[in-house]
Specification:
Blueprint (H helix, E strand, L loop, with lengths): L2 E2 L17 H5 L14 E2 L3 H11 L5 E5 L6 H14 L7 E5 L18 H7 L2 H11 L1 H9 L3 E4 L12 E5 L7 H8 L7 E6 L8 E2 L2 E2 L5 H8 L6 E5 L9 H14 L31
Parallel strand pairs: 3-7, 3-10, 4-5, 4-6, 6-7
Antiparallel strand pairs: 1-2, 8-9
Helix pairs in contact: 2-3, 3-5, 5-6, 7-8
């Protein structure tokens, strides 16, 4: 995942950042900018920065990211979602995370899980909860959930729902069907942003003779269908974007020889990577804090 520095310097807009807690943000006691609660992000690869910039761009309402494990795509999408949710000047009022409820490999059926619907959903969102806790801490995550500013949803219950002033992340999108992706995309309003991310080499829902039949995935369908469309942007990571080290990276490199899937990008414009972002760690740029 991308490296963050708790004491790093970052560039702000015109105003100082003074709030430390979600209560202060909600009560509008923050003067402006991203709260100190969120540490600046330092990108480790060019595609990490491209992904962040694509989400940040007001030209893009749907951003898609295709990457092998270890590229940091989930971390970046959640980091940017929290920045938009907690920024005083942002219109985003809710962060929604969706993860298809499919077992790894779709092989071992665990049956009915105990607990209420939220407890069942959390089982499929452990990685997202881990990242949220890492960025702002479990206490603040709990407060966001209790205030209904952070929600976890499943693909099964999207009909009749409209997402307004929301930042939505669909993780593990390779396990969503074409119909589910169509349903999700048609639920968002003009003031919302949708991030769709996945790895087609880990397609658990669609398999043929034990091999991922990724062409049946809704993620593959939507990637091809929305290519080059205004308002949609594609970021495809490659093997050099894997930031895991040691034995994990060497193992992934072996798998990649068989599993790497190239989709290609088709975008309506080029991103400006030189323009500084408020949430980006920038060496030598000073932020004034009270």
């Amino acid at each position: 995942m991308p490296k963050v520095r708790s004491k790093g310097l970052r560039k702000t807009t015109e105003l100082e950042v003074t709030a430390n807690t979600i209560e202060e943000i909600v009560e509008q006691k923050v003067v402006g900018g991203i709260p100190k609660l969120i540490t600046p992000i330092e990108f480790k690869t060019k595609n990490q920065k491209r992904f962040y910039k694509a989400i940040e761009s007001q030209k893009n309402q749907i951003v898609m990211a295709h990457a092998l494990a270890g590229a940091g795509k989930t971390y970046i999408s959640i980091q940017k979602g929290l920045e938009l949710l907690l920024h005083r000047l942002s219109h985003i009022e809710k962060l929604i995370i969706i993860n298809p409820t499919v077992d790894v490999g779709n092989e071992d059926k665990l049956g009915h899980l105990p607990g209420d619907l939220m407890e069942k959903i959390e089982v499929h969102n452990e990685s997202s909860l881990f990242i949220l806790n890492k960025i702002i801490g479990p206490v603040e995550v709990k407060k966001l959930i209790e205030s209904k500013k952070l929600e976890f949803r499943v693909m099964n219950f999207l009909r009749g729902i409209n997402f307004e002033k929301s930042y939505i992340i669909l993780d593990e999108a390779q396990n969503a069907s074409p119909l589910q992706l169509k349903t999700l995309i048609t639920r968002i309003s003009d003031d919302s942003k949708l991030v769709i991310e996945g790895d087609l080499s880990q397609c658990d829902k669609y398999r043929a003779n034990g091999v991922p039949a990724y062409q049946k995935s809704g993620f593959y369908d939507i990637w091809k269908r929305l290519a080059g469309m205004k308002g949609a942007y594609q970021i495809e990571f490659d093997s050099s974007d894997c930031i895991r080290s040691g034995i994990v990276r060497r193992v992934l490199e072996r798998y990649e020889l068989e599993e790497e899937i190239k989709l290609g990008e088709s975008n309506p414009f080029e991103l400006n990577l030189d323009a500084p972002s408020e949430g980006e760690f920038i060496e030598g740029v000073h932020i004034v804090e009270s």
